[in-house]
Fold this sequence. Notes:
Elements lengths: L3 E3 L9 E8 L2 E7 L3 E2 L6 E6 L2 E7 L3 E11 L3 H8 L9 E3 L2 E6 L8 E9 L4 E6 L4 E6 L2 E6 L4 E6 L3 E5 L4 E6 L3 E5 L4 E6 L3 E5 L4 E3 L6 E5 L4 E3 L6 E5 L4 E5 L4 E5 L4 E5 L1 E7 L4 E5 L1 E8 L4 E5 L8 E5 L4 E6 L4 E7 L6 E4 L5 E5 L3 E8 L5 E6 L3 E7 L1
Parallel strand pairs: 5-9, 5-11, 6-10, 6-12, 11-13, 12-14, 13-15, 14-16, 15-17, 16-18, 17-19, 18-20, 19-21, 20-22, 21-23, 22-24, 23-25, 24-26, 25-27, 26-28, 27-29, 28-30, 29-31, 30-32, 31-37, 32-38, 33-37, 34-38
Antiparallel strand pairs: 1-8, 2-3, 3-7, 4-7, 7-10, 8-9, 33-36, 35-36
Amino acid sequence: MRKLVLVAMMAAAFTLGQNVQREGQYWVRSGGSEPAQLSAQVKQVEIFTRANVTVRGSADGTVQIKLRQRVRANTAEEANRMWGPVGQIAPFVAAGGVMRLEVYPPGSSRVTTELEISVPKQLPFVWVNNRSGSVEVYDLDGSVRVDSGGGPLVMDRIRGDVRGHTGFGEIRLGTIGGSAQCSSGGGSITLESATGEMNCVTGGGDIGIKFAGGAVAVSTEGGNVRVEKAGSTVRARSVAGIVEVVQARGAVFADTGGGSIQVGSANGVRAESAAGAIRVKGGSGPMTVSTMLGNIVAELMSGGRMSDSSLMSGSGDITVLIPAGMGLAVRARSDSGTAARIFSDFPELQVRTVGFRSPQGQGLINGGGPVLELNTSGGAIYVRRTK
């Protein structure tokens, strides 16, 4: 039998409903507990509820519950019928270093329930399992897991890893000291900063990341993706939206079915769009860029180490901006019939026509170097010199 660790507090429960007051067209009842010291043997707290819940870390090592219910009613008697009977919250009892707290307040679907719980901020792990409602978690030193049947999630000032899932609703992550993993059935996802990696997916909504110290892997079925800064590899996918990566220390893999792609600084790029323009900027690693319908602009930067690369457009122009001193072996082909054209600022790129107005260009620019393949089936090719 596991040893039971009891939490030192009042008589195992607190009563809901002792404070009832009128606020405009609403009636409000509330209850709560006095702060109670949590045993040092408890390393994990699990919270099971059905409410709009907020969890905060307390510096004094105590546990406290506050609960507030609101309903629109004409009289206190009508409000009481919708609230249901006055109940008690289950006691705080822990076994094997894990404390489980179940809070299921009574009330009809017309009742709005708000639950606020404070726990010791130094806890290694906190899990919130909410059947339905919003979840907010703040100021904890350990890791956090949140599961919600539906509602927005907010986690901020968490020093450990975070993991969150909601059936629907937005996810907002603030400052995270570890890694971040999250999913939403339909809602936007935002991250202020995470020291570790980020892996998130949503069934519909934008994804915005300001900083992730590790690798990033994100996907949305119906929104745009923007990653401002990543400390490693970025994998970004959108079914029908824009993908933008401003800066990544690793390679970028970007894929969209119906939007444009823009990649700034990266150590290699692989970008594919079914129907959108692509713009990439880089001077290190390979570039493999393709779009079925749209223009491609590639701005190469001096000082990096380019690798063999290819740019391909099914119907659009290709423009490459090459620094004056960069060495490349360029192979260009345009198969767009009467509109087939190749223009170059570099005399080393020799152009000749093959078949029916299908020009090909080949040449060693600045003495040659990595191979750069350029191919379009419905546009022109421009090879431009930059300072």
